[in-house]
Amino acid sequence: MSNERSRELYDRALSVMPGGVNSAVRAATEPYPPFIERGDGGHVVDADGDRYVDWVMGLGPLLYGHDLPQPVESAVQSRVSEGPMFGMPTEIEVEHAEFVARHVPSVEMLRFVNSGTEATVSACRLARAATGRDKILVMQGGYHGAQETTLVAGEFDHVEPSSPGIPDSFVEHTLVVPFNDREAVHAVFEAHGADIAAVLVEPVLANVGIVHPVDGYHETLRDLCDDHGSLLIFDEVITGFRVGGLQCAQGKFGIEPDLTTFGKLIGGGFPVGAIGGPPELMEGFTPSGEVFQAGTFSGHPVTMAAGLESLRYAAEHDVHDHIHDLGDQLRTGLQEIVTDQAPEYTVAGLDGTFKLLFSRDAPETFDDHCEGGCRQRQSCSRYDTCPKTGADVKAGQTDRWRRVFWGGMRDRGVFLSQNQFEAQFVTYAHTEDDVEETLEAYKDTV
Ligand SMILES: Cc1ncc(COP(=O)(O)O)c(C=O)c1O
Predict the structure, then answer these.
(1) How far does Cα 417 stand from its chain's mean position?
(2) Residues 161 and 287 in one domain
(3) Mind listing the pLDDT tens digit for each residue in 30-52?
């Protein structure tokens, strides 16, 4: 494997783009990131012509790998040929909103935007306006995009910006609790309940490894929000149309949030975001209400065509079954490998997501452990030690993962996401051969 061309491109990129990339995590692999030339089904080919099984999959927006099903490709091409965009409404936006409202339990109306970040920004604004309160409660290790309210570090009401450039006064309105800690969230509501506009939470933490909710956690959040007049916002930018299929994670877990934010799969591989909810809240947005929300590219016809046709295709074919089956095979295979080779590690993920967490402490045995990935089942013999919060994942062997393990997998023809924290994604294009090849590489590298 030669990395010559990627090295040259990165060298050029460093002169014209900060850190040589347009999104920070892309440069997480060292000494420089592979540049990609093209995709092919479940594989990518890099700028040096080397081919890899790809589990990064754009970091989530690709349900079909790198080849669009023919109806999706035709819909995209026909939209492009009609003119890329108009600054006026189009029928395809209505059809896409109707489709999503039919499938996602808590959604009756949608506002499409251009990124997950834009969706969470607008959802926080709407929640603050609807409740007349300022505080947003988030989870440590949760990620909601590059936005001021949620780029925070700290705990409870001792919160500071996690990036320079964010005034301290902005994050006075953000509260933080560890995910899965019911006592902490009760305590914070006790102290601040009357000021909390919303709890903003990923149904499954998916940007800090993958962390499944403990039994009853989302029910606790739902009850606390109801008792205190706060809104529950599910950030389904990653889980949307992946975990639980078309009903999303909220359908799978049986929880109805007040608002939902989407991104990634709802745009079929093109830039997108969306906020969904009932009319009582959604009509707070301009022009029906007064909460300002607008965007030149919002509801872009090409994105709408890609997103709608992708999801329609999934509704008519065995797309999610295929993805979930391969996800199970991967997680079960990983479980067998770590049982033999690294019992302290934790296999995480559900449905079309997976990750091997390089956790440090766990029992040597796997008696009655969660099958097919950690589910935070209380009766599991590993329950007391498996990572439950973002901090638990960060306490793992993250340098070993990124500096040693990632490169070893790449040398064996497998691209994993850039660090211990980013999730990995199974698509309809992946095959059982891809799974086997990947498990062989894990066996050699772990
Ligand atoms: C849960 C979650 N919310 C929001 C975002 C931000 O989305 P975007 O990168 O499209 O702005 C992400 C991005 O990965 C995400 O995972």
Answers:
(1) 12
(2) yes
(3) 899 999 999 999 999 999 999 99
Same-domain check for residues 59 and 91: no
Same-domain check for residues 229 and 101: yes
126 and 8 in a common domain: no
Instruction: State in Å: Cα 163 to ligand 1 middle.
Output: 17
Atom of ligand 1 nearest to the CA of 239: 1
Domain that holds residue 224: 70-316
Residue 360 backbone phi and psi in degrees, to 5 = -100, -35
Distance CA 71, CA 108 (A): 26
- Which residue's CA is the closest to the ligand 1 atom numbered 5? 145
For a pLDDT cut of 90, what percent of the chain falls above it?
A: 95
Q: Whose CA is nearest to atom 14 of ligand 1?
A: 145
Determine if ligand 1 sits within 6 Å of the CB of residue 145. Answer: yes
323 and 441 share one domain: yes
Q: Pick from 316, 334, 365: which residue ends a domain?
A: 316
Average pLDDT over residues 194-220: 97
* 318: Cβ contacts below 8 Å, ≥ 6 apart: none
- To test the pocket of ligand 1, the residue of 149, 236, 237, 265 to mutate (highest count of ligand atoms within 8 Å of its CB) is 237
DSSP line for 25-89 = GGG-SSS-PPPEEEEETTEEEETTS-EEEES-GGGTT-SSTTS--HHHHHHHHHHHHT-S--SS-
Q: Where are the alpha helices (DSSP H) in 342-431?
A: 390-394, 398-399, 406-411
Assign residue 126 a region: left if phi > 0, alpha if psi is -120 to 50, beta otherwise? alpha
Q: Which of 204, 207, 210, 250 to mutate to test the pocket of ligand 1 (most atoms within 8 A of CB)?
A: 207
Same domain? 37 vs 90:
no
Residue length, the chain?
446
Distance 373 CA to ligand 1 centre (A): 23
This model's pTM is above 0.90: yes
